[in-house]
Amino acid sequence: MGIASMEVSLDINHQHAEESSKVYDDDGKLKRTGTVWTASAHIITAVIGSGVLSLAWAIAQLGWVAGPFVMILFAFVIYYTSSLLADCYRSGDLVTGKRNYTYMDAVHANLGGLKVKLSGFIQYLNLFGVAIGYTIAASISMLAIKKSNCFHEKGHKNPCHMSSTPYMLIFGATELIFSQIPDFDQIWWLSIVAAVMSFTYSTIGLALGIFQVIVNGGIKGSLTGVSIGAVTETQKVWRSLQAFGNIAFAYSYSIILIEIQDTIRAPPPSESKVMKKATLLSVAVTTLFYLLCASATPLCATRPLATS
């Protein structure tokens, strides 16, 4: 009887373990359900942002040779560095190792010590700067809509002086409200909607650029960008550096890569392999779209539409 009872107990425990494995992952959290497609949607949402607005100006400064080359170069850099970071999601074994849920967890597991505090300071400083950049970009965009309505009503001779401060406050308050939603990162359909929106406004920009090219009767710009004479040597150097910064800003998403990878369902295959596929797909699609948006827009701007 004792042996029979032990066998029954083992069977029951085994059944409970199987049932638990269907509901929970190896770390005791609810099963992750992310795939290469949902991860790609997260990445595209994170990558395509206000940075796309300054790409045409950036290529105008660098020219038709250096501009696309630098854009493809940064695409390769973000893919390569993201692939390295994807391997840091689990410590030790890529399939069964301890999970690192955030970027700082990965830094702590692989570096430790003072480097964690230094990396944390840099990351939060970066997030702070990005938040400021998006707040300013959003307020300028809302102000542009209001000014456009004002010009239609009162004519283009009217200066339509307005302040962007109220729109900054509105956008900031909205961010605070949304940040209080629990498990906001688990709303998978939100990234799908956001990715569609990113492609939508980028497509609108692309269509407007193509229309303007048709109106102008050709594409502006040159092989080497804005020439010295139209600008001083110092301005040429400064604008080229600005262009590099704008292109780099348009590709940034590494600060949330680990969080995106943490939504992918458990292996097989390993989360790092799925993340690398999603990164390759997303960066390739984004780069193609960036090149189209930047190249179709008439390259005659003298200042950036948006800066990082």
Short description:
By secondary structure, the chain is mostly helical. Helices cover 68% and strands 1% of the residues. The protein has a domain at 30-110 and 189-296.
Low-confidence stretches: 298-308
Strand order of the largest sheet: 1-2
- The sequence of SSEs as H and E is HHHEEHHHHHHH
Number of strands: 2
What gross morphology would you assign?
globular
Mean pLDDT: 80
What portion of residues is helical?
55-70%
If helices are DSSP runs of H or I spanning 4 or more residues, what is the number of helices?
Answer: 10
Tell me what the structure shows:
This protein is an all-alpha fold and 308 residues long. The chain has a domain at 30-110 and 189-296. Helix content is 68%, strand content 1%. Strands 1-2 form a two-stranded antiparallel ribbon. β1 and β2 form a beta hairpin. The termini are far apart. The model is unreliable at 298-308 (pLDDT under 50).
Question: Would you spell out the secondary-structure blueprint of this structure?
Answer:
Elements: H1 2-23, H2 36-47, H3 55-86, E1 90-91, E2 98-99, H4 103-110, H5 114-154, H6 165-179, H7 188-216, H8 233-250, H9 257-261, H10 271-296
Antiparallel strand pairs: 1-2
Helix pairs in contact: 2-7, 2-10, 3-8, 3-10, 5-6, 7-10
GO cellular component, one term: membrane
Transmembrane segments: 36-55, 62-81, 121-145, 187-211, 280-301
Domain Amino acid transporter transmembrane: 32-295
